[in-house]
Amino acid sequence: MNNEVLIHKSSPFKRLATLAAETEKAGAYDFAAETWAAAAALARRDCNRQWASERSALCANAQLRGWGTTEMIKEL
Asked: Would you say 29 and 68 are in contact if contact means Cβ atoms under 8 Å apart?
């Protein structure tokens, strides 16, 4: 039996969704909105597509309202 460790590769959707969530958490809403939209386009399940589309819209709205890292820097 081969003792090599099999590396589990995550799906493109999961990688983009993870990146989008991390950038959203960091307050980079413009990039997060684009990344969520790209993840939605790659989603195989309707529930994942809907979730990613709604997160994209939320991040786009947050960017329009001036939320995020650039706004926090201005306040300091």
From this structure: yes
d(CA 67, CA 12): 28
Residue 13 CA to residue 19 CA, distance in Å, equals 10
Question: Cα–Cα distances in Å, from 44 out to 6, 31, 39, 50, 54?
Answer: 24, 22, 10, 11, 16
Do residues 32 and 24 lie in contact, with contact meaning Cβ atoms separated by under 8 Å? yes
Per-residue pLDDT, averaged over 3-21, amounts to: 81
Looking at residues 7-32, what average pLDDT do you find? 92
Residue written as tokens 């003792």? 3
Q: Say if CB 62 and CB 20 are below 8 A apart.
A: no
- pLDDT for the residue 75: 46
